[in-house]
Protein 1
Amino acid sequence: MTHFLLISMTQKLVIIGLELGALNKLKQLRLDDSSIDKSFLHMVGVLTSLNVLTMSHCGFSGSLPAQGWCELKKLQEIDISHNHFDGILPSCLANLTSLQVLDLSYNHFNGNIALSQLSSWTSLEYLSLSNNDFLNPISLSWFFNHSNLKVLLSENNKIAFEPNSHGGTPTFQLEFLVMSNCSFDGLKRTPRFLQYQYDLQVVDLSFNNLVGKIPTWLVENNTRLVCLVLMNNSFTGPFRVSNDIRPNIRYTDIAVNYIEGPIPANFSLIFPNLEYLNMSNNALQGSIPSSFGNLVSLWILDLSKNQLSGTIPMHFAVGCDSLAFLKLSYNNLSGQIFPTNSNMTALSYLYLDNNKFSGKIPKSISIVSYGSIDFSNNYLSGMIPTWMGNMSGLNLLSMAKNQLEGPIPFELCKLDLQLLHLSYNNLFGSIPSCSNLSRTEFLYLNKNSLSGLIPSSLILNTSDLIGLDLRDNHLTGNIPHSIGSLPSLRILLLRANHLQGRIPIQLCLLQTLNMLDLSYNKFSGPIPHCLSNITLKASFQEDDLRGLSSGLGSTNSFLPSLPYFETKYTTPPDEEFPRIHWGASLNVKPEAEFTTKRITYSYKGDILQYMFGIDLSCNRLVGEIPPELGSMSNIRALNLSHNSLSGPIPVTFSNLKQIESLDLSYNNLNGKIPLQLTEMTSLAVFSVAHNNLSGTTPDRKNQFGTFDESSYDGNIFLCGPPLQNNCTKMRPPSTMPVDNEGEEGDIFMDMGVFYISFVGAYITVLLGIVAVLFINPYWRRAWFNLIEVCIDTCYCFVVVHYHKLFNYRSA
Ligand SMILES: *[C@@H]1O[C@H](CO)[C@@H](O)[C@H](O)[C@H]1NC(C)=O
Ligand SMILES: *[C@@H]1O[C@H](CO)[C@@H](O)[C@H](O)[C@H]1NC(C)=O
Ligand SMILES: *[C@@H]1O[C@H](CO)[C@@H](O)[C@H](O)[C@H]1NC(C)=O
Ligand SMILES: *[C@@H]1O[C@H](CO)[C@@H](O)[C@H](O)[C@H]1NC(C)=O
Ligand SMILES: *[C@@H]1O[C@H](CO)[C@@H](O)[C@H](O)[C@H]1NC(C)=O
Ligand SMILES: *[C@@H]1O[C@H](CO)[C@@H](O)[C@H](O)[C@H]1NC(C)=O
Ligand SMILES: *[C@@H]1O[C@H](CO)[C@@H](O)[C@H](O)[C@H]1NC(C)=O
Ligand SMILES: *[C@@H]1O[C@H](CO)[C@@H](O)[C@H](O)[C@H]1NC(C)=O
Ligand SMILES: *[C@@H]1O[C@H](CO)[C@@H](O)[C@H](O)[C@H]1NC(C)=O
Ligand SMILES: *[C@@H]1O[C@H](CO)[C@@H](O)[C@H](O)[C@H]1NC(C)=O
Ligand SMILES: *[C@@H]1O[C@H](CO)[C@@H](O)[C@H](O)[C@H]1NC(C)=O
Ligand SMILES: *[C@@H]1O[C@H](CO)[C@@H](O)[C@H](O)[C@H]1NC(C)=O
């Protein structure tokens, strides 16, 4: 006799009614992860003894059948989560009066949960409605008679819980309540029924836009509370809890609210066993209480984006010896980082960026033996210590925007870094020719005073390099030809150095490059024709993207991960319930700057993929602009200004459909502006000023209607709107020369033609008037009267005109 049938894992099941009938004594049927035909649902009713039916991840879709399975009157547990069911719940479900566990999560159920059904499920202990499309408001008071209800999960629903209009008090005592990201329609206050709860262990009300004082009474009322998540609401007020000790609380996330005031000094007394504390994105003031050092279990602490001031207390640095993750970024903290030797031997992630820390980099941080360090945007001074080379497991090191000086120690080469960010310091000396940066993806050393050559060994050995930023230094020499051996390079920024020589054709091998900035150097010679090769393949695959955005985070296995809660509630309940797991992980996004539209934007993360730009401005480049550049159809910004480029503007540029900024100013370009350029419909900035261009300006259509004179300035032979030079005055279309030679002669010939036609027109008009006056005697009399009346005015008019004409000739 079969009482239990367990079918798990992915299996193809073919179940026919006959076989099912033989199983009529079956108590439990667990079919999770199987692929079952939906007709099974119509037949399952024959299993009249069934207590437990679980069918999660079975790929069902459509609505639940209204017959066939509602007859399972003995069912205590149903799990149909993670399917694609939609529609409303059939009303016959009200027959299932023994129901204790109902899991409908991760489907597309909508409509109302029929009230009749709810009221008949009086034995319900566990109800999960999470991640559905339940639409209509349910009053929570409908649950109030379910005295056995322990777990209520309803995150990511469109459920609009009604205000507590029915009043009354709930008969249940919940242990586990997750109502995150429910649009509490009309109810922006913490649900009132919570005030009657004293047995809660897990409360998650995040992403609800709740207002009012932060409900610290939840902590006070519920002595067994383990986990409190009130993240991303609009709670205000100080986080002050009465003096009772709450030894069970291990996880508190109240980030992204408007909590103000200081952190209570005896915080650690009240929450002695805290493991995870996230109070980031609030308005906390005052200093970090020294008593934090008593939080010996604390593993992850995030106080970033507040207004905390003062120093890191000494007691904190020695006491929290379990701390693995410390983020104090974006505060007003000052003083030395870890003035004493710290006992935080587990510390792997230390984010102290955007504060006012000063002094030298303390030896005490050498305890961070792997993970990440971000000290950027502080006032750290002194040299980069050589012992940092012994922090061998370090993955990300950012000390940008400080006042560090001296050379980059060769010892740093020993680190197996993915990111080294030392920009905006006063570092000098040469770039160490590291030979083992094989894992380095981002090397940002811009805005220092580094000199010497770009070491070719460095480049040869960084095959994973994605971003190299050496802008604003004093580097000399050529771009090493080994640059072509960086197959993943997407960002190459060498702006404002003293680099020279030709632009190496090896750059053309970098087929994945997004941003190339060689401006403000002394590069000479022509622009390589093959340069167009670099973005030919620039259409990114989804996978490439993921690689980039997780560029710094592909270390996921090292990063501490965020907890999630295991809520699986089976009969009988799990001993350890509720359990905290550490699952999802953190991620850091890469960053790069690029100048386009004459403004420097900071591109972060995924947006990098959309940015394709080449800046070769302010060099000594000669020769013609390679027409091949017109095939870089993905390019968004191209700046070739301030060089000595000659020849015409390639007609092929009209293919640059994505281009937003094109600057060719301050060169020796000649010939006419191709009229097809108006096909560049994304253009926002365009300049060909200060060249030797001639002929007419492009039609004022599409984007070209928005460009003013400054786009064309300094080309004396250019005419047409928006310039003042009138093409018809300068050179009538009929006699427009087609060649570019004899520019000097052109203007004289044009003026000659102009005079001839002017005189011709004058005589014609004069003869016309005389003829009219001769024919009509009335007009003749009127005409001579008029002459007498305004003889003076006409005189002035002629004088003015003469002057204008004179001025024009001398111009
Ligand atoms: C059970 O559901 C059917 C509808 O499928 C309904 O006709 C019947 O009245 C229900 N029985 C009870 C006891 O609710
Ligand atoms: C709950 O029970 C009380 C009395 O037992 C009753 O008056 C009330 O209507 C019930 N509420 C619901 C929603 O069923
Ligand atoms: C909140 O729910 C909406 C849909 O209702 C969803 O798009 C969004 O991603 C959810 N937010 C979070 C943080 O889960
Ligand atoms: C919970 O706290 C609220 C507000 O302080 C209070 O009104 C209520 O009586 C408390 N409930 C319990 C069960 O202690
Ligand atoms: C907070 O939630 C809102 C929507 O509920 C969302 O737009 C916003 O990005 C969230 N803020 C953070 C910091 O997660
Ligand atoms: C915490 O400090 C407050 C005053 O700041 C005091 O009322 C309370 O008793 C203290 N709690 C403990 C546990 O010491
Ligand atoms: C703290 O909360 C913020 C806002 O939700 C989040 O971005 C951050 O990752 C959290 N910190 C940790 C360490 O989990
Ligand atoms: C940071 O501290 C300084 C004094 O040290 C103060 O002038 C400034 O207003 C503080 N800034 C913030 C955002 O609290
Ligand atoms: C580190 O902790 C131990 C006890 O765990 C203590 O004896 C020692 O003094 C601490 N170290 C420092 C530098 O305070
Ligand atoms: C760094 O490590 C080397 C060998 O592993 C050792 O000789 C040296 O003393 C260490 N330096 C410091 C400053 O700890
Ligand atoms: C550029 O691409 C063309 C065509 O794909 C190819 O023939 C040429 O060799 C490439 N040039 C370089 C330098 O890779
Ligand atoms: C240019 O000349 C034409 C014909 O002479 C005239 O219609 C037009 O208004 C002039 N444009 C400007 C900008 O002077």
Protein 2
Amino acid sequence: MADSACREMIIKAIIICLLKLAFSYSFRSCVEIPDSNHKIFRCVKCHESDITTIVSDVFPTATNLTVSRNNITYIQGQSFHHLFNLTSLVLDANYIVNIHKDAFNNLQKLQTLNLSWNYISSLHRDVFSDLHHLTKLLLGNNNLTNIDMFLFSNLTNLRIIDLCRNHLKNFSALVESISNLSRLIHLDLSFNKLTTLHHSTRLPNSLAKLILSNNNLHKLGCDKSFLKYVEVLDLSKNTLLSSKTFQGLNLEYIKNLHLSFTKVSAGKLLNYTNIQPRHIDFSGLNLKDHALTLLCFHLRDHQIPKMILQSNSIRVLNKNTFCNCANITDEMDLSQNAMKTTGCLKFLHCQKQLETLMIEHNHLTKLKSCKKSKKVYSLKSLSYRYNRILQVNGYAFSNTPKLTNLELNINIIAYLDHKALNGLKDLVTLRLDNNLLTDIYNDTFKDLTSLKTLNLRNNHIAVIFNYTFQYLSNLTILDLGGNKITQMKPHAFDGLKSLTNLYLDRNHLKEIDGMLFGRLHATLQVLDLQANHIMYSTEHTDSPFINMSRLLDLKLDAQEPNGINLLPHAFFRGLISLNSLYLTKNHIIGFGAETFDDLKSLETLTLDNSCVGIAQLKPGIFKNLRKLKTLSMVNMGITSFSKEVFGNLTGLKLLHLNRNAMMSLDISLLDNLTNLTYVDLRSCPLSCGCQNSELQNWTLSSKRLQFPYLFNITCQDHPGSFFHNFDTNVCYLDIALYLFSSTFTFTILLSLIPLLYVRLYWKFKYGYYVFRSWFGEQWRRLKDQEEKYKYDAFISYNSADEDWVMEQLLPNLEGSSFRLCLHHRDFELGRDIVDNIVAAVYGSRKTICVVSQSFLRSEWCSLEIQLASYRLFQEMQDVLLLVFLEPIPERQLSTYHRMRKVMLKKTYLQWPGSNCSDPNSAKELFWNQLKRALRSSNTRSQEKQNDQRRHDKEGTDKEEREYFMNHTPINDEVHYLMP
Ligand SMILES: *[C@@H]1O[C@H](CO)[C@@H](O)[C@H](O)[C@H]1NC(C)=O
Ligand SMILES: *[C@@H]1O[C@H](CO)[C@@H](O)[C@H](O)[C@H]1NC(C)=O
Ligand SMILES: *[C@@H]1O[C@H](CO)[C@@H](O)[C@H](O)[C@H]1NC(C)=O
């Protein structure tokens, strides 16, 4: 007995060893980013709260780890101790409140640590002490009220600290904590509760960027030279801050000072400090009308590259405003003001060098003709985004003839005059998207001969007339997506000699006009026809792409309302350069085997949701796609694959098969896919039976292949259990034996000779008796078919259960005149015990095994079950009845595979324990069932038995049904296990 348990332990240990030798290649909560060489891992939204559990199986090769949007509240000590090569650790958007002081121990190489968007209110002073290489520390959006003076003391490489959106009050303590960080460049303290910049130490000289916006600063209160080395200083939205507090401040190196929505006066600031006017952002300082003129006067001898005047409530700009002013050389930003008209940019007439003008987020409604206005030749880029422009009149840009970039998007332009864009010969980019345009005329773009990008997305254009774009011979990108185009005239695209990208997605096109697109064949590389109304009802349509030998990217996904339906025969013929093809959401009725034949360059194929009902991919369908790297077939209703489907996909790296209908996947199908690194099998109804045992083993032991979220995949046929750990040991009898005999024989021989001796002894003995009984049975059958059994049942039990047998079983069954064989009573004295058992099993109509924990541990009982199940399988003699005296955990049973094999043939009986609600009637029921089972014939076929079982269930009373419900038989599948 002890010997048997010991043997089992050794076998288990060896199996565990084997599994550990191979990499387990899926992660409980994480995914390795494909192609990242085991370096980049994401563990996002895994509903797990224990950080050590989440990261426990991440490979030590990891360099970048993101653990975001989980339910983590605490970071334990040594949480990442095995991830010593991490350079980036992102823990944002969790519920972290506390962090153990040793949490980040060992992360010597860490460069980036992101703890933003948590609930951290304090940090132990040693928590970052190992992070010598940290350069970026993000702690924004937490509840920090204080920073320990020594918190950053070891982080001598730190360059960026983000502490925005906390509750920090004490600036002085903060400065102390960072004062030795000689590489610190960037400190963000916005959205805290600082009231002054009072300090006891100096800032590191390296600190160039200090963000203090949205605090409660009412005065600075710092030394005059405290900010001397700062280059970017943001003090905006400290609404109480006034000019006076800047008096005498040394702002020598400032390049960018933001003061919007403070009480600071620009003029006074210039008087009080040594700041250069060109380094001030003049936004939000109430600079309009007279104040603006005054400021200008102040600046009149200066050169200002960027004049930023956002949010100053400016309504109108006088044509002289910027005359007695600085020379603005580069950009003027007037966004977020209240201008109703541009006045043909008369206010720029004194500015001869300005190149960029932005008037976004104002109240412009109309762009009038500026034909007669003085020209602003310097202007190259003009943006009127986010206004309320409804109408653009002819010659609206005649005053700015040198524009190269014009942004009119996000307005409500419904009327764009034929001549609106007249004269813009240098224009390269024109944004007209997100307006209300319905018509474009064939002379609208007449002068735009330099245009390269034309964006007309999200308008209401319905028809593209002939020659609309005829002058745009340099155009490379034409975006017409999101319109209402139903019709494109045959010459609509004439003249587009350089077009590479054509976006026509989300329109109402009903077909693909091969002639029309054919005209673009020499240059076109990207064609987006997503979400139109393309549908075919016959297979006999010529390929519309026959000439498109340069096309690289074709999107045909999500045709409205119900998809393409019938993909015409050889539909993609001619697309020999195509790299990516998107056919998602198309309800295609079957793909012909030749569908993708021409796509020899294809690297990405997306067929998600593209089928109706159950799809069966034709053998050879991907035969030419040797360059395919990504194949996505999510939710296609695929039930199985034949080997020829994947045959030639030798370049395939990523395979997405999630949400399909297959219950198993034959891994030999994937044998040829030597470059495969990632197979997504989520949400497939995978069965946890032996047909998937190889798949399971493979998913867990493959080194090159990742199966994302494998540990979340459940068993379709065993609700509540998981695919990754269903018991496949029994399926591996042969392999295991092979492993034993080949790989481990030597070891075992050396170390386990005594055990092996016992093991072989029993094997021989079993084999011998099994053979002998088989022979005996054959002989008996021939000789005496009619021979009566000596007993109705042989009772096999362990001596520990003798009381129950003698007190319950015997009286009940012998009382009903069954003849029982009990070993202590009926075995022949002096005969070998094994012979006795054989004789008993064959001399009884049934063998009843009384199963308990002690029974499972007994060597003899295994032999009895073995013999009885031998009769069951080899002779179709159904002789075994199992009576469970106590609930036996599934796991334990599964190690007794033969018993499980029996259980799929038989209903087992559970002895109702004393904790049963109505023990007496349950026991009565038990005896009735046992007797019925004893009386039943031995030679029923399996089907009959099942029928009988079902019949029994339905035919008996409610009580019995309930009894059955509470004692569900073990699932009907075969598990084998090493003996
Ligand atoms: C850690 O990084 C070093 C240097 O880049 C490398 O040599 C080593 O193999 C890495 N260790 C692991 C476990 O990836
Ligand atoms: C997060 O964890 C807390 C306890 O740690 C639990 O009460 C809460 O329900 C969890 N939330 C989610 C979304 O799992
Ligand atoms: C990985 O982390 C390093 C160090 O922070 C960073 O420079 C790099 O961009 C990260 N790589 C990716 C792919 O996120």
